[in-house]
From TrEMBL:
Activation of anaerobic ribonucleoside-triphosphate reductase under anaerobic conditions by generation of an organic free radical, using S-adenosylmethionine and reduced flavodoxin as cosubstrates to produce 5'-deoxy-adenosine. It comes from the Bacteria. This is Anaerobic ribonucleoside-triphosphate reductase-activating protein. Pfam families: Fer4_12. The gene is nrdG. Keywords: 4Fe-4S, Iron, Iron-sulfur, Metal-binding, Oxidoreductase, S-adenosyl-L-methionine. SUPFAM superfamilies: Radical SAM enzymes. Belongs to the organic radical-activating enzymes family.
Length: 158
């Protein structure tokens, strides 16, 4: 899979102390994007699933956040990472430019499966007109912090 960067001990990418994986590739092209270099998947470094998992597992004090870029752009590979990190007991937040409704209606089963391994989804594109610097963990007012653990089982396709 293609990865832009992995950082440890973040307190701004979800609750608590988190290791953040910034995946490469994004199809949303939001105006005012915080990381436009991540749009091109070729700007990332190729990393095997095992190496990504080992990097996160090497920090036992942190939970994990999938960011980007668009984590669902490489849903099959990211799902494999999520599955293995969940088995290690990690709490997983995922950011996406897609909305929750778009993801659960997706034709791609890997996108829906990835949702199943995550605990929290921060959804929707960054909208410059909705930007709000006072918000926690998100950049614009349209983005929602969704507890997937309470949604699970209530949605037929998720
Ligand atoms: S979804 Fe995120 S990474 Fe992609 S363009 Fe929008 S702000 Fe940038």
């Amino acid at each position: 899979m293609r990865v832009m960067n992995i950082i440890h001990d973040s307190v701004v990418d979800g609750e608590g102390l988190r290791t953040v994986i910034f995946f490469a590739g994004c199809p949303h092209f939001c105006k005012g994007c915080h990381n436009p270099r991540s749009w091109n998947i070729h700007n990332g470094t190729e990393m095997p699933v095992e190496d990504v998992v080992a990097e996160v597992a090497g920090n036992p004090l942190t939970d994990v956040t999938f960011s980007g870029g668009e984590p669902f752009f490489q849903a099959q590979e990211v799902c494999e990472v999520a599955k293995r990190l969940k088995a290690l007991g990690k709490n997983i937040w995922v950011y996406s430019g897609y909305t929750f409704e778009q993801l659960i209606a997706s034709d791609d089963p890997c996108k829906r499966e990835l949702l199943r391994y995550c605990d929290v989804l921060v959804d929707g594109p960054f909208l410059l007109a909705e930007r709000d610097l006072t918000l926690s963990f998100r950049g614009s007012r349209n983005q929602r912090i969704i507890d997937l653990t309470t949604k699970r089982g209530m949605e037929r396709s998720f």
